[in-house]
Amino acid sequence: MKFRILSKCFLLLVVIGFFMPVSCNMNGFDIGNAFIGNNSSGIGLDMFIGIAVYLIFFAAIASMIISVIYILAKKKNPPLTADWILLLVSIGSGLIAFFKSIDEVSLEYGAYFILAGWILSLLCLIISSLKSRAKSK
């Protein structure tokens, strides 16, 4: 459980990084708005990338909120699969947004906060999963 809590703490780096300049002197919300605002023909690639940028933030927040709800309800542990799904959604949507706009991107320090949060959170979840698997045997 300690590594899962650490994983949530590292997701705070993702949230903080989203508010910092990520690229082109814009934070994550500005980037998402820019992609969605560029979309003039309905649902297209820019709209998809804008939604993916927002998913980085909202999946990290949702993961932390689920843990807080379980802790306040004094239940034992939130489901480990929920942690994995939300972290992978955050990472996957960030990678989609990055690789779909790689030629236009110059990363700033907010992007590195997000990347560090993903890596450290992922490592903590891997360790937590291995420990819970070892306990169940």
Q: Could you describe the 3D structure shown?
A:
It is a single chain. The chain has 137 residues and is an all-alpha fold. The protein is built from five helices and no strands. It has helices spanning 2-19, 28-37, 45-72, 80-100, 109-136. Helix 1 runs antiparallel to helix 5. The protein is elongated.
Blueprint (SSEs and pairs):
Elements: H1 2-19, H2 28-37, H3 45-72, H4 80-100, H5 109-136
Summary?
This protein has helices at 2-19, 28-37, 45-72, 80-100, 109-136. With 137 residues, it is an all-alpha fold.
Largest sheet: none
Helix content class:
over 70%
Count of individual helical segments: 5
Radius of gyration (CA) equals: 16 Å
Question: What overall geometry do the principal axes of the alpha carbons give?
Answer: elongated
What is the succession of H and E elements? HHHHH
- The N- to C-terminal Cα distance equals 17 Å
Give start-end ranges of low-pLDDT stretches: none
Q: Tags for this entry?
A:
137 residues, mainly alpha
